[in-house]
Amino acid sequence: MQEKLEFLIALATEKHFGRAAQVCGVSQPNLSAAIKQLESTMGVPLVDRGARFIGFTPEGERVLEWARRIVGDYKAMRADVETMKQGLTGTLRLVVVPTALPMVQRLTATVWSMHPGIKITIASHSSTEILSKLENLEAEAGITYLDNEPLGNVDEVPLYHERYHLITSADSPFGTRDSVTWEEAATLPLCLLNTTMQNRRIIDRAFAEAGVHAEPMLESNSIVVLTNHLCTGMWSTIMPRIMADSLLLPPSIRAIPIVAPELSTLIGLVVCRRDPQPPLTAALIADARRLAPDLANAA
């Protein structure tokens, strides 16, 4: 039964029978047959089928919710027993919004100093992708925005606030200022993250609250791309101060607080709500709570 539930979760993640089968290491006919057996056991169709995967039936959505819970609890149980045998080991998979990447090393360094037997992987994703990966058991924890868009069934550990600055050349129209307004920032040639990123949606909302619309000259999902363009002095951008400080920008580039309105958003650790938590996740939560006051002061 557990294997069939894992197939269902893989199908929810990949939204394609062939890719789901590949992820699970089985043939597509075997995966399809297993899901049909699951449907027979439940007595209802779980998947809308056409020439390709269409989606889940209402009953399928409910079974998928239970599948995630059951498989997650089973893996947590196995990890708990393994920890009793040989201590805390395994791989901790973290998924992080791009603007939080500069601080994640402080969290992972803390975790590894306390638990040197574990391995850590870090991947950068949008906030929407982070929630999907947690839900589908593809990551143990995420670092994302806590107070802007719905998070769902997760436990949260607040870490610090992002505070937004205009990053611009000292030679730009506002380069010598101690602060700028959102209205003023909108007049500059901007390079910004694209709208798949929650950071951009937060910035767009701040412009709207200021009564202006900013049309960026360049958009990307990559901080590296923004940084390279910023260093030319031709573009400006808006990002959290903690991010700007980590980029080691040339002295000619300034970080200027943006006011009217002065905006901050809460960044934190999120994990799927489960009691008890798997050992690795529980250790991460405890370390994040210890580190949070220092991160809050640094930001």
From TrEMBL:
Residues 1-57 form the HTH lysR-type domain. Keywords: DNA-binding, Transcription, Transcription regulation. It comes from the Bacteria. One of its GO terms (cellular component) is cytosol. The keyword Transcription regulation applies. GO terms for molecular function: DNA binding; DNA-binding transcription factor activity. Gene3D superfamilies: 3.40.190.290, Winged helix-like DNA-binding domain superfamily/Winged helix DNA-binding domain. SUPFAM superfamilies: Periplasmic binding protein-like II (SSF53850), Winged helix' DNA-binding domain (SSF46785). Belongs to the LysR transcriptional regulatory family. This is LysR family transcriptional regulator. It comes from Azospirillum palustre. The lineage of its organism: Bacteria, Pseudomonadati, Pseudomonadota, Alphaproteobacteria, Rhodospirillales.
